[in-house]
Structure formats: C-alpha cells, structure tokens
Amino acid sequence: MNTVAIAGVGLIGGSFALAIQKAGFRGRILGVSSPSTIDAALNAGVIHAGVTLEEACAEADLFYLAQPILAIMRTIDAIAGLVRPDCLVTDAGSTKGDIVTFATQRLTRCQFLGGHPMAGKTSRGVAVADADLFQGRPYVLTPTDKMHLETPAALHLVSWLEKIGAVPIVLAPEEHDRTVALTSHLPQLASSALAATLAAMLDTGNQLRVSGPGLSDTTRLAQSSFEIWEDILATNPVAIGQALDAYIDKLHFFRQNLTNPRLREEFAVAAELARKCRR
Amino acid sequence: MNTVAIAGVGLIGGSFALAIQKAGFRGRILGVSSPSTIDAALNAGVIHAGVTLEEACAEADLFYLAQPILAIMRTIDAIAGLVRPDCLVTDAGSTKGDIVTFATQRLTRCQFLGGHPMAGKTSRGVAVADADLFQGRPYVLTPTDKMHLETPAALHLVSWLEKIGAVPIVLAPEEHDRTVALTSHLPQLASSALAATLAAMLDTGNQLRVSGPGLSDTTRLAQSSFEIWEDILATNPVAIGQALDAYIDKLHFFRQNLTNPRLREEFAVAAELARKCRR
C-alpha cells in the first residue's frame, strides 16, 4: 500500500490519515475535499496533497470514503470507471445496507469493503482530527461474503486497522444496520427528542439552571449536526422505526407504572445493560 | 451555629459535612445513620459523633435531612416534638411539594426550609462523599413565603451554602417539582427506558460492542438506584406524567417524520437547548 486517497478529510477521514501516519505509514496520502479543508489538512500535516477524484483514482491503492452517506454513494458512482483494478475502496459511512448494495452493483472494476468505525466526537472537521480516535474502538467491516476479507488488499486494510488500535468486527450489512439502529441511532433520537421536549416545555432558560449533571449527559448527543443524521435516517428508516416503536412502548409502560413496584424490575434490567455498556 | 446534625450520612449528607468543615465550620457535626455508616463516617472524619435522633434534637442548631424522600418525612415526624425552638430544619430531598406540605403541618416547633442541591454522582454512600460536591452547583431553596429566608437561621444557612460554593436559587415547591420533572426526572426515565429497550431488543451482549461513546452518555443515568427513584416517582407523579407525555408525543413526531425535512428544525431546536445546558 503506497498511496492512500481520502475523500472527505473531516474528523474521520483526517483521523484515519493521522492514525496511519502515527502507526508507521510512509506512503503518500491524497485528500479530496473542499479547498478550505484541503488547506487546513495540508497545514496540519494530515495529507500530503489535495487532488481531484480523477487524480486520486490514478494513484490510490486504498480509497477511503469518509463523507456523509449519500456523498459516499455519489463518490462511488464517480470513481467506478476510474479506479485502478487492484485498488481497495472502503468507506466509513454510518449505515451499510444501501452503500454496500450500491457499491456491489456499481463498483465492478475493483474490490469494495464496507466499514464503520464506532468512534466520533461532538465536533466535526479536520481541525479536531485525532491520531488516537480509533484506539480501542470497534471498527465494523461488512463484507457480503466473508471470503472478501481474505484478499491481499483486505488483509492489508485489516492489518492497518489493527495498527491504529481499532478492534475489527465483522457483520453482514443488514445486521450492522439493525444493530446500530438500537445502539447508535435510537440514542441519538432519544437525546434530540428529549432536548426538543425541554425546549418546548420549559418557560425560561433560567429553569435549565435547576439541573444536575445527568441533563448534560443525556443531551450531549442532541448537539449533533443534522447534516450527518439526515442521511442516516434516510438510509435506515425501517430498523430505526422499529427501534423507536419499542422505545415508545417502553416509555408508555413506564408512564403507566410510575408508582407500581414493577418499575423496580425495569430499573434493574436497565442498570445491568448500562453497566454492560461500560465493560 | 454550633452544632449541625445530619440525618442520612450518605453522599449528600456526608458531602455537606465535609464541605462546611473545609469552608471553616469549627462546631460539632453529629450523624444519625446506620451503625456501619456511622463507623465509616467517623473513620473518614465526616462527623464527630454518631447519635440518636433524640440526642441530635437536644443539641442541633441546624438539622440537615439527607435521606430518601419518604425517610425525610418520617424523620420530620419523629423530631417534630423534640427539636429546639431555634433549630432550623432543612432537607435535601429531590422533590419538594410533599415534604414542604408535611413539614409545614407537622413541624410547628421550629423553622423548616426545604432545599435541593442539584449535585450528585452515580455512586452513593459516605465513601464517595466529597467536600467539593456543591462547588458551582445550583442549590434550590423552597420557602413557602420568601420572608422565611430572612430569619437569622435561614440567613446563616444561605451563607454556609455560599461558603461551600453552591449557588442558591429560590423557587416555590410546586415550581421546583414541575421544573425538575423536566430537567431531572424525565432525563432519568428516558435513560432507563432506553437501556431497558436495548436490553429487550439486542440479541446478544456482543452487539453492544458495536456502539460509540454516545451510548455510554445516554445510558449513564440508567445505572441509578431505584431506591432513590421510587420515592421521587411517588411524590411527583403528575408533573412527571406530563413530562413523559410530552416526550412520547415528540418521539411520535420524530417517528412519523424520519425522512421529512421538518426534522431538521427539531434537531436545530434540540441542539440549541443542549448548548444552553452547557453554558
């Protein structure tokens, strides 16, 4: 792997570039992004050059797509006829079903391997890119056939993921999407809906002072940008809908049993799950 | 103020004892708690002596009730005929309506002033008591008449709250309860219900690995003990029910508009509220 191209040099793409450099990558890293992002990424030593998609395709052994989901699909479409046959295209999109289906149909010239690093920050952009972002974090890979993980290019990618401290997990695209609907998309919507409810119900900003640290925790995700979430909601609506239905049912149960000892059991089950999240 | 008695020497009661000592209190601090808690509190220098309620009443200038809500009411009942007339009784209960109503009726011998420090930790008990727990945190006082804040004993308490770094806020008991139903009780139930939903919907613990830091934030409160929440739910069910209804309505709206651009506005309102929580 001599040349890595990164489309979308933001938090994730920029962090991947910094992480592989820190882990010993000595090849070239090309960035495809807006002019202002390329300037910032060059100044911060995140990439070695800013190039066009066409130029990236001519050189890249690994093409890392770290854009929003619909932009990833547009990029796949744009590079499909241009990539080198021994290039591996991978992505960091937050849903996998639509991307993998589209890539399988469209990207016939070289291998595609879907990915999703379970890492992030509230802030976005190359300015907050971090060489240690993936350290100890799960990194889901979603081959449509597990044999696709055994190609030289895929083995190479996995070895780099391990070098940057990520923990590879293999899931089918649909299983990934059902899982993150619960572990990521539902928490986001629960937090956004909570903050939106408070905004509607609180008379004055002053009342917000009457709160403990728990309010900060539960509303942290509500700061997330809709630009990211719009594509996630559009590409995983069925699983997200099922997760929301189950959550609303559970809240109804809580509502109807506020002073019923049965709620003790719900709290116990919830506390056990919350502890598992922390192991 | 020569002698402070604390009923319930746990996280809050123990932290109050440590905080006033750190702020220069040189009088005696008496603890009323279980024998094991008294031992731990004596060993940690949190209190000077463990006493009975009767002994505490004979000496205390300030009686600080830091138990669960229903236990606070039982203590008020028990000390009503025993406290010194110039004692000030205050409490740290998480709901105020029922406690203040009960104390007003029952505690005729001395002044009562309801309180609620907006501070806490996930862990409980005197072992995690912390002299800086109240530093910079709001501390709600709920007099039924604002004149009650002007008595010498109340002025004295407020000056100690300020010395330990707390930020006093005055609210009517009902206004307090309506506010914390939204800023504290709803976030707790949203977190517990989220964790309970995940526990029911996830097939395997393994799936939990496929998550980002947002899941930890949104499920942190779900670790809370039901022992505390049982009393809160029992003494603020109307306001909590209204808060839950509003939250469920908002989630329904999200559910029905997952791929509708109207959700952008909800995310914007939510993000603004989340930022306000952090100011």
Topology of this structure?
Two copies of one chain form a homodimer.
Chain A: E1 3-7, H1 11-22, E2 28-32, H2 35-43, E3 49-50, H3 53-59, E4 62-65, H4 69-79, E5 88-91, H5 97-106, E6 111-113, E7 115-117, E8 138-141, H6 152-163, E9 167-170, H7 173-201, H8 213-219, H9 226-235, H10 237-256, H11 262-277
Parallel strand pairs in A: 1-2, 1-4, 2-3, 4-5, 5-6, 8-9
Antiparallel strand pairs in A: 7-8
Helix pairs in contact in A: 4-5, 7-10
Structure description:
The structure is a homodimer of 279-residue chains. Chain A is of the alpha/beta class and 279 residues long. Chain A folds into two domains: 3-171, 3-Layer(aba) Sandwich (Rossmann fold), CATH 3.40.50; 175-277, 6-phosphogluconate dehydrogenase C-terminal like domain (6-phosphogluconate dehydrogenase C-terminal fold, Orthogonal Bundle). Helices cover 51% and strands 12% of the residues of chain A. Chain A contains eleven helices and nine strands. Chain A has helices at residues 11-22, 35-43, 53-59, 69-79, 97-106, 152-163, 173-201, 213-219, 226-235, 237-256, 262-277, and strands spanning 3-7, 28-32, 49-50, 62-65, 88-91, 111-113, 115-117, 138-141, 167-170. In chain A, the strands form two sheets. Chain A has a six-stranded parallel beta sheet, with helices on both faces. In chain A, strands 7-8-9 form a three-stranded mixed beta sheet, with helices on one face. In chain A, helix 4 packs parallel to helix 5. The longest helix of chain A has 29 residues, at 173-201. The model of chain A has no long low-confidence stretch (mean pLDDT 96). The interface between A and B is large, with 88 and 88 residues.
